[in-house]
Recover the amino acids of this structure.
DNA sequence: ATAGCTATGTTTAGTAA
DNA sequence: ATTACTAAACATAGCTA
């Protein structure tokens, strides 16, 4: 059969999901390259597959775009709230509402703040490492079936 | 006239270029959202128009994807011995000595980790803002004596 | 995992508002 | 800056290899 109208929701079948990821990732990168070239703009695209593979594209480079974004005074975050497929925005908002850390930053003095900052840096590394660890493990599991 | 075969090169006319940028940026973001939703992947897109406007989208957040990219061990490395869960163990021990965060990162699943990551991002901003606030005020006090 | 195929849904250049 | 319109160009689901 040929193509039918497709609903944008999570693909349950693992193999299909990966195939679709590969195709759509290629399409996304192509679009980004066209945008950059036709409009003389700067852009970066970073993707992680569930298997943990990293794919990134950036013009003039991923790092330069990321740095510029990080250093931007005000991040407009103009990620639309139009709610077409905007499920992602809701999830992000949900995260903001979790309020995992209710530390009274306002009342801390400089010394406390510096300690807190260092502690957070270390914790952050742990979390990222843990994420990468999980991803790597699942990647290994998937690879078991391959020759 | 309707559309002709288009060559992917820089659009010289400024107004046209901006119009195309707006359209194609929207298309790019839509594609990114579909990729995230259908394939359950993480992705971030950051664009700067020539006018300097920032547009960014990320799941679960721009920062988390950027940080994960920055912290990635090696770009296309196959998961080998480093992917075991035990990576975090030593640092966790160290953390207990600090006593500031007793969060059991080791036992958290992916979803929890993502939320934690986002929560830390925001907390970090608060702390940095607070530090900047202190620095600014003390700076102002010093400035009182200057011409 | 990635590539070719094809029918069909989707995006977008050109234009005007 | 963004939006509506339309037809041509384009991307891609479902297959196969």
């Amino acid at each position: 059969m040929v193509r039918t109208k497709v609903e944008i929701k999570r693909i349950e079948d693992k193999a299909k999901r990966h195939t679709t990821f590969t195709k759509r990732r290629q399409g996304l990168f192509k679009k980004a390259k066209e945008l950059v070239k036709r409009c003389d703009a700067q852009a970066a695209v970073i993707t992680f597959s569930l298997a943990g593979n990293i794919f990134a594209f950036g013009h003039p480079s991923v790092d330069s775009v990321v740095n510029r974004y990080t250093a931007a005074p005000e991040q407009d975050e103009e990620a639309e709230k139009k709610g077409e497929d905007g499920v992602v925005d809701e999830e992000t908002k949900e995260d903001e509402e979790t309020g995992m850390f209710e530390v009274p930053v306002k009342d801390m003095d400089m010394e406390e703040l510096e300690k807190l900052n260092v502690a957070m840096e270390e914790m952050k590394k742990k979390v990222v490492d843990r994420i990468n660890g999980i991803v790597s493990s699942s990647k290994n599991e998937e690879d078991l079936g391959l020759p």
Notes: Chain B touches chain A through 94 residues (CB under 8 Å).
